[in-house]
Hints:
Elements: E1 3-7, H1 12-23, E2 27-32, E3 51-54, H2 60-70, E4 74-77, H3 84-89, H4 91-112, E5 117-123, H5 146-165, E6 169-174, E7 177-178, H6 187-199, E8 206-208, E9 214-215, E10 218-219, H7 220-231, E11 238-241, E12 247-248, H8 249-259, E13 268-270, H9 288-294, H10 302-322
Parallel strand pairs: 1-2, 1-4, 2-3, 4-5, 5-6, 6-11, 7-10, 8-13
Antiparallel strand pairs: 9-12
Helix pairs in contact: 1-7, 2-4, 4-5, 6-8, 6-10, 8-10
The structure holds guanosine-5'-diphosphate.
Amino acid sequence: MKTALITGVTGQDGSYLADFLVGKGYRVIGMLRRLSLENYGRIEHLADRMELAQGDLLDPTSLETILREYMPDEVYNLAAMSFVPTSWNQPVLTGEFTGLGVTRVLEAIRIVKPDARFYQASSSEMFGSIPETPQNESTRFSPRSPYGVAKVYGHYITVNYRESYGIFACSGILFNHESPRRGLEFFPRKVTDGVARIKLGLSNELRLGNLDARRDWGYAGDYVRAMWLMLQQPEPGDFVIATGESHSGREFVDTAFRHVGLDPAEYVRFDPQLLRPADVDHLVGDASRAKATLGWEPEAGFEELVRLMVDADVERLTRVAAQPGTASIPAV
Ligand code: GDP
């Protein structure tokens, strides 16, 4: 039985990857930070099928201790400060977690378990304002936020440990990927949650910022499969993971409202407070390398993704609203 360590296991990708690896018969160790408020919601259903270990990307000793205790065959570094707008408010912390945190994990691997295979969660935000479309593994990085800058550091340190120490280190350059488990602060989930609330009469408006930016939106469940495939290859490498299709925020909004038979013009309000100091206008990925080498292709298309997210939010909010004594509907 193989052992996998997942940092960031309480997040969207961590929980889907844990589902996937448990299904493959792995012993799964989820690393989490001690928080005053627990956030096990996304992994509750796995409680008796995986183990949890307390550690923190800011604390190298905790990483070495976990590696010594579990001696994992595979390490997936999914922990990060991952929300772009927050990276302008907390740029230094973003650099610590999202950038230097990668080095701390790689150092722990180098010292304790140098034959462990390592996956780094890199991001299409690293491409930023680049005019070249679609973007592939050779496209120049031009990040537009402290988050994107920190991810570029994480990407290059992963490549560097592969080249310097021969560590089996892979960087997955994943384009935006969504699901019903996505945090409510991200655009797609904010939209599907908002549409569901309006449909159920729990709200009558949805405030949004820039709807012209285009993203290549895929389904997170498909994307964690690509992470695992990268670590099963004979050689380590870097791979773009994307659908190859881009859509504007406006198209996402229209598709979501249309799915429940409502007109977005009646409910969507522009809120300039939600504009960013700099935005990324157009991301669309070319995943042909992943297709050729990993045999990976996304299964869910754009319309299907939007519909499944709206349906999940309608179902969740209907269930919560039906409970007696529900004065206000909690966020998640
Ligand atoms: P990102 O691509 O990692 O920044 O993912 P997000 O889902 O946070 O944002 C995607 C796009 O939606 C960006 O261009 C945002 O500027 C745009 N956007 C428009 N309104 C909103 C909003 O209310 N919240 C968020 N998070 N993004 C918004």
